[in-house]
Amino acid sequence: MFHLSLILNLRQLSRKILYISRLTHTIYPLTIREIYDKKPLNQSINLIGYLLNVRKLKTHYFLDLFDGSLTNNQKHLQVVASLDKHPTLPHLTYGCSINVQGKLIRSDHPKQELELQADHINLINSCDAFNYPIKPKFEQTLLMLRQNEHLRLRSTFAQAIFRLRSQLMFSLYEYFFKHNFIHIQTPCLTQNDCEGGGETFRIQPYQSQTTHTEKEYFNKQVYLTVSGQLHLETAANGFGRVYTLNPAFRADKTLSRFHLAEFWMLEVEVAGLTKLDQLLDAYTDLVRTTTTEIYNKCPEEFKYLVNNNIQSTYIDQLLNQNDYPRINYKEAVEYLRKSVDFHDFPDNGDFNRAHENYLCQKLMNNQAFFVINYPKTLKPFYMLMNDDDTTVANFDFIFPSVGELSGGSLREHRYENLKLRLDELDITRDLQWYLDLRGFGGMPTAGFGLGIERFLMAITGIDNVRDFILFPRFYQHCDG
Q1: In terms of Cα–Cα distance, which of 451, 447, 449, 380 is closest to 236?
Q2: How far is the C-alpha of 232 from the C-alpha of 244, rounded, in Å?
Q3: Which residues belong to CATH 2.40.50.140 in the chain?
Q4: pLDDT tens digits, one per residue of 155-207
Q5: Angle at Cα 440 formed by Cα 436 and Cα 445, nearest 5°?
Q6: Strand partners, 445
């Protein structure tokens, strides 16, 4: 009986050890978040992180350890260290990185659940606390963080923003997976200016070492892509429902808070969508579903933004509306011409931000809306011509405080009509492969593009796209 009891006790002990081992050992270094989730009390814990604060009280030091794994309302773990056991502690400052090993216990402090009693503390890298820009108890402004791009993700402010971006990306992938879309990676190098605006970055010719002349690497002029849409159409003709989520590049010579030279673009293409209303319904469902998902999954991040005086004023329009007003381009022009500021708006003129803001504020009472059926002269060659032969079946989605958030269209699937447009622009030779899609039994497709950074502007209320991308590239600025 004694031996049986011993065996049973050993089995129970081994199970307990295995359970604790699973809690405290993973293939990745342990994080503070995992400690709060699993609470391996009275176990030896090993952590690496930065110090947010260093406080001395009589014979002990209290260190706020931070590793970026927690959400913003509970962002650190307190480490308690005896000065007798750790004589090097006075050299620690906020911002420095340490490796700490100790025992996890419940804290007596009413505002914190756990603390780590340190047995060993090793300084990894010291920090010049005087010049370190992210100081404890000092206000972190978005402007200051923008000026310190390489350090800003150590701040809770920037972390809240980038957690929202991460969740948005995941929600988009999840949405398309549920709707049986295929994810396609379109080329970043192209010989086509898809949008027709001419604002492309050209790949520089190189100097031949043999002939000492400039040569094109690809034997033709090649550019960084502005859009993957043309290539995505080839995939839509194979799979039916496809999307891409890739970087795009536009050589805008502007310092506007709405523009980046390098940004991320979601592009969607669906075969069989033959009505513009169907496309608008699909777009509305996407933005509503993904916004709802990010709002429900990131309550702490939204709360943090509110606490820092950033209000997502118009997010309800993304969360709760099943439809948005739809007006024709001609109606929008007629309304502009009734105003004092824009009474001389030209025939077939394009809208700028001032026009979009006026329409949004005065005509729509700060309500998001679609403008549809633009003149063909304003839009790219691939958009489907309407029966009037002067307009195309397209949309721009105008959002309060952001302006144009998205654009999309039905694609011209009729071979002769597309060839005529390509001939008019003298680009048939370069786009013969695109024309071939129609010549070899291509299906009608429709799609749209949605800029990730501008979408985040609409969701959060933050008014500068540079706050949503790690190292923003824009006119005269490419640091890091």
Answers
A1: 447
A2: 7
A3: 23-132
A4: 989 999 999 999 999 999 999 999 999 999 999 999 876 555 568 999 998 88
A5: 80
A6: 271
CATH architecture of the domain 23-132 equals: Beta Barrel (2.40)
In the block, residue with structure tokens 């505002």: 111
- Report the topology of domain 146-468: BirA Bifunctional Protein; domain 2 (3.30.930)
CB neighbour burial string for 340-349, b if at least 16 within 10 angstroms, e if fewer = eebeebeeee
Contacts made by residues 1-6, CB under 8 angstroms, sequence distance 24+: none
Closest CA to 227 of 204, 252, 203, 244: 244
d(CA 347, CA 334): 10
Contact 258, 465 (CB under 8 A): yes
447 vs 382: CA distance, rounded Å: 11
pLDDT above 80: residue 8: no
Q: Which amino acid is at 364?
A: M
Closest CA to 467 of 154, 159, 167, 135: 159
The C-alpha atoms of residue 443 and residue 437 are separated, in whole angstroms, by: 8
From 234, 266, 221, 270, select the one nearest 247 (Cα to Cα). 266
- Tell if the pTM clears 0.85, that is, is over it: yes
Cβ contact 133:267 at 8 Å: no
Per-residue pLDDT tens for 335-352? 999 999 999 999 999 999
The 3-class SS string of the chain reads CHHHHHHHHHHHHHHHHHHHHHHHCCCCCCCHHHHHHHCCCCCEEEEEEEEEEEEEECCEEEEEEECCCCCCCCCCEEEEEECCCCCCHHHCCCCCEEEEEEEEEECCCCCCCEEEEEEEEEEEECCCCCCCCCCCCCCCCHHHHHCCCCCHHHCHHHHHHHHHHHHHHHHHHHHHHHCCCEECCCCCEECCCCCCCCCCCECCCEECCCCCCEECCCCCCCEECCCCHHHHHHHHHHHCEEEEEEEEECCCCCCCCCCCCEEEEEEEEEECCCCHHHHHHHHHHHHHHHHHHHHHHCHHHHHHHHHCCCCCCCHHHHHCCCCCCEEEHHHHHHHHHCCCCCCCCCCCCCCCHHHHHHHHHHHCCCCCEEEECCEHHHCCCCECECCCCCEECEEEEEECCCEEEEEEEEECCCHHHHHHHHHHHCCCCCCHHHHHHHHCCCCCEEEEEEEHHHHHHHHHCCCCHHHHCCCCCECCECCC
Task: Determine the average pLDDT of the residues in 273-282.
Answer: 97
Can you say how many angstroms the Cα of residue 158 is from the centroid of all Cα atoms in its chain?
Answer: 13
Q: Identify the bridge partners of residue 268 per DSSP, sorted by sequence position.
A: 243, 448
Domain with CATH 3.30.930.10 in the chain: 146-468
